[in-house]
Amino acid sequence: MPVLQKLLSGIGLPDPAPGLEAQRALDRLTKPPGSLGRLEELARRLAEISGRFPPTIDRPVIFTLAADHGVVAEGVSAYPQIVTAQMVENFLRGGAAVNVLARHAGAAVVVADMGVAGPLPAHPALVSAPIGRGTRNMCDGAAMTREEALRAIEAGAGLVLAEGGLDLIGTGEMGIGNTTAASAVVAALTGLPPATVTGTGTGIDAEGRARKVDAITRALAVNRPDPADGVDVLAKVGGFEIAGLCGVILAGAASRIPVVLDGFIAGAAALAAVRLKPDVQAYLLASHRSTEPGAAHVLEALGLEPFLDLDMRLGEGTGSALCISLARAAVKILGEMATFKSAGVSERSP
């Protein structure tokens, strides 16, 4: 059986029983029912997805995947392509925002080269899994072959399976030009116009955004991705790191591990994963509401409400790291807070 099909066949809906047990436990704690709001929802979902009560967060990992995009030739980014390689080096030195926030959250960061165009020095912490040295320009034809897209998905899944023992997965990415690819993926999968789901990315001006919308419009017309086929969409207008994140998400769902979506680009990967296997949606947690205009449409399509709204749009896995901090808090509420009975506190009147 092909790797992807085996992965998909192992994904089913989680058992609701542990989540219900978590809710009963939350209702016995010294507080009015529901008074901790969405922190209670997070605790319940962690129990349900993992199938464990109480849920634990002992080994959270953020997977930050990097790759380059041929579509940068269309002038869609405010930064040169070499910044992808430079930022990967920054990740490896521990100096990027995701590193700082991951340390704060007590999470590890796995950095993987899925197809960076610029040179990268050898580093013991870098996972080298390049499918190519950047995708081709999707305005001229498919960004990658179907075989390359499948390899990228499987490589992303392999990162999760190789770690073992994970109890919470965060998603992250780096790639100059990847908001253009993500917007194209979202437009293809939702049927929304490119202008509706396309933002300013790294901070381009109005003229740059117009070029970006035009590039996506042309790419969709040239390639005609099949919205019913997540692999076809990723191959024709996606990116190596986006396809890799699709694999990370699929492997998380197959392993019954909660998967935290970072922002818009991780959301595009999740849309493709859910198109391949609808049950994946039950394993997803949305970390924050990105300011990218397409992010709201992604969240709506996935049926997710983010836990944070901080006007962020950096990517890297920064939103994932903050949500992991919240998840730790939710788990501690379940494990450390006193019940009415244990604290000798009177319960509400009937």
Strand order of the main beta sheet, please?
3-2-1-4-5-6
Question: Per DSSP, what share of the residues sits in E-state strands of 2 or more residues?
Answer: 5-15%
DSSP E strands, number:
6
Helix fraction bin: 40-55%
The CATH top-level class label of the largest domain: Alpha Beta
CATH superfamily of the largest domain: Nicotinate-nucleotide-dimethylbenzimidazole phosphoribosyltransferase (CobT), large domain
How far do the termini sit from each other? Answer: 58 Å
Structure description:
The chain has 350 residues and is an alpha/beta fold. The protein folds into two domains: 3-54 and 334-343, 5,6-Dimethylbenzimidazole Phosphoribosyltransferase, Chain: A, domain 1 (Orthogonal Bundle); 60-326, Rossmann fold (3-Layer(aba) Sandwich), CATH 3.40.50.10210. It is 50% helix and 9% strand. The protein has 15 helices and six strands. It has helices at 3-9, 17-28, 38-50, 82-93, 97-105, 146-163, 178-190, 194-197, 206-223, 230-237, 240-254, 264-276, 293-302, 318-336, 340-343, and strands spanning 60-67, 108-115, 126-128, 168-174, 259-261, 284-286. It has a six-stranded parallel sheet with strand order 3-2-1-4-5-6, sandwiched between helices. Helix 6 (146-163) packs across helix 10 (230-237).
